[in-house]
Amino acid sequence: MKTHTILLLAILSILVGCSSPENKSATQQQTPSQPAEISDNGNNLFEEKCAACHGADGTAGIANAANLQISKLDTISVIRMITHGKSTMPAFAEQLDTGEIKQITNYVFNLRK
Ligand code: HEC
């Protein structure tokens, strides 16, 4: 009987020992997934609103759209460009909120080589 109880305790402690690091890694995986979601949304928004002229990689140049891979604009200028437009580049102030414009701006910078 006693060996049985000890065995049972040993199995229990193995189970507990295994489950706690698993729980930890599950929480660790959730934390970095949040910035990924944001950049994914920037990617989605770019494909939806911008890729028609700039192309998915920013180089298509449709309707004279600037090549975003060689663009040298700073953050504020990119935000202004998206918000207010310029010549044939449309303004997106009425379609995108500030958070979305920031997400797209991050995405635009990620396109640069
Ligand atoms: C209808 C076509 C069109 C769409 C859609 C469009 N753009 Fe543009 N974009 C242009 C054109 C044309 C220019 C060049 C404007 C100029 O400088 O006269 C430009 C320029 C830019 C520039 C400036 C690059 C530089 O270095 O001068 C950025 C940044 C930019 N677009 C980002 C975006 C983003 C982000 C979106 C989506 C929210 C978008 N564009 C949607 C046509 C478009």
Explain this structure:
- With 113 residues, the chain is mainly α.
- Helix 1 crosses helix 4 and helix 3 (75-84) packs across helix 4.
- The chain has helices at residues 2-49, 51-54, 75-84, 98-111.
- The model has no long low-confidence stretch (mean pLDDT 82).
- It has 4 helices and no strands.
- It has a domain at 37-113: Cytochrome Bc1 Complex, Chain D, domain 2 (Orthogonal Bundle), CATH 1.10.760.
- Heme C binds at residues 49-50, 52-54, 63-66, 68, 71, 73, 78, 81-82, 86-90, 92, 104, 108.
Mean pLDDT over the full residue set: 82
Which runs of at least 5 residues are low in confidence (pLDDT < 50)?
A: none
Residues in β-strands, percent: under 5%
CATH topology of the domain at 37-113: Cytochrome Bc1 Complex, Chain D, domain 2
Number of extended strands: 0
CATH secondary-structure class of the domain at 37-113: Mainly Alpha
How many strands, what sense, and barrel or not for the largest sheet? Answer: none
The computed structural class is: mainly alpha
Annotated CATH architecture of the domain at 37-113: Orthogonal Bundle
Count the DSSP helices. Answer: 4
Overall body shape = elongated
Helical content (DSSP H or I, runs of 4+) = 55-70%
Ligand list: heme C
Q: What's the SSE pattern?
A: HHHH
The CATH superfamily of the domain at 37-113 is Cytochrome c-like domain
Distance between the termini: 70 Å
- C-alpha Rg, in Å? 25 Å
